[in-house]
Amino acid sequence: MTVSVLVPSSLVREAEDKREATRKIGYVARAATVFRADRLTVFPDSEGERRWGGGFVETVLRYAATPPYLRKEAWGKRDELEFAGVLPPLRAASQTGSGSDDSGSLRQGIVTEVGPEGRVRVNCGMQHPISLVVPPETEVDEGERVTVRISSREPVRAKIVDTPLPGLSVDRADLSAALGREDAGVRIATSRHGEPLTAGRLGQLAGRIEGDGMTVAFGAPERGLPAMIEGVTAEAVRSSRTPDEGAVETEPADGTDSSAVEPGVPGRFDLWLNAIPNQGSEVVRTEEAMFAALGCLTLTE
Prior knowledge:
This protein has 2 domains: 3-90 and 168-297, SPOUT methyltransferase, trefoil knot domain (Alpha/beta knot); 98-161, CATH 2.40.50.140. By secondary structure, the protein is α/β, with parallel strands linked by helices. Helices cover 26% and strands 23% of the residues. Helix 1 packs across helix 2 and helix 1 runs parallel beside helix 8 (286-297). Helix 5 (199-212) links the parallel strand 9 (186-196) and strand 10 (214-217).
């Protein structure tokens, strides 16, 4: 099951300074990590951006998702990371704790030196970089990240394996492209105007999500997803609820393109959900919505 989370480039539009913006992004990364999201995608919302846009958001998210032992070597000094010290630790199971020390555990590493006879030196969080053999028919360059399987720490026994890097993956993509991925699963838009997420509705969704995975999209403070998608209004979302399936078929009265939300088609949402139907605050921040929605949607039957 693949879990993907989509957040807008306007994520930190209400932040008063770079420190606050950095901290907010850190909580978004932490929410994605807590609920074992595989991928965190930043989609463009240029109209909603203010001082810091998608490049800043993506960079800070990528840094936060980088294992602590690789950050200095992988990132160096960058203006976007001026306040990286305020980021909350993710403590991802694939990076820290007993999970990364057990026999056969996977870790991220970065190639620090390419040597002769198909060997490279890799920093993977051990006391010193270790010399490893590059798998046949594989080429790696200095500075490239690789996946290392550690079977023993004393003595050190490890090897580079041809598997995706463990941990949270961060990227940028258009909303339609992110929703059109083959592993998108159930494509869910979160909105206060969507169908209320009830115990009964969750029971209907749980089996499907557990089997197919899911992609969940979130809005920005004071700027929900309907405002970001051309041709979609809050009223259209409310009036298009289908209690049996939870799908949304939006046909705007003005004739604008509704392809971004038509259900059952790659690149479009399957349903709109309100994960906090009785919210007590006028504005729910993105990171708060993530904890509320993912906490429910990742429950199993």
